Amino acid sequence: MVDSNRTIYILFDDDGRFLGGPYAGQAGLNISALASEFRTEKYAKAEQDEDDYCFFNSDEFPAWLVQRGLLTLMEAECVTAVVDTSGENRYSPKHWPTCPSCGVGRGDTAMGRVLHELNRVDWHRQCMECGHTWEHHDTAYYSDRPMLDDDGRCIDSGCVPYSISQAGELPIEEVINVCRECGWSEGYGIDTHNGIAAAHQLGLTMSPWRGMRVAGKLTLRKLFEQLDPACHYIIATKGHWLAVVRGENRDQADTHLRSEVLDCWEVRRAGG
Question: Are residues 176 and 264 both part of a single domain?
Fold first, then answer.
């Protein structure tokens, strides 16, 4: 300010909430002492009026300072300043690779799907303009643990091809291709009839299990107790298939052992 004996005050409470301002006033005002004086006057007035309670509004103290002539409210203009960093104004480093799809945007490094079961995470480039992704590569999610090979257990709606691959000891890529021909797709899966047809096309036979039935519903736990540890099986529960190979449960979904068994087949190679 031009007058060196005056300064600008902006008032806040103890919690940082704005009380008022800007005000012009004499430099060096002891605001804490003035607040104590204001409180004393407020209490005295309440006592004189025989009030049972005495409360303060957030604007009372600034108004009191103005009434006493200690502060003068200054005219101010409130403006909003926005530094736009989106859209065409987004920072797009020239040293990032150009998108091979749109040829305009630049590729930022982005993290994709995380497969915790395999300790794998997908890293890739993603275009800031069109969203195209490229240069996909997997790294270990936990750097101190090894990555596991994807044997199909993490494929969306892939319990049928995974079970066929495990029980038939066939490469998952080969099983996936045949299952697609029979109607399987990620996110939707495949029905039981077409799943059996896919297994037959892959050179497998699926013979209904002829074991001893039990009282009540047949659960996975009860079935596992009866399966031959030397054989391979595919078991169907509600909406799900799982494989048992030489006594080992190869279920990728951790199905509860109290789940009801709807079907069970012994799996062999045709002619075997």
Answer: yes
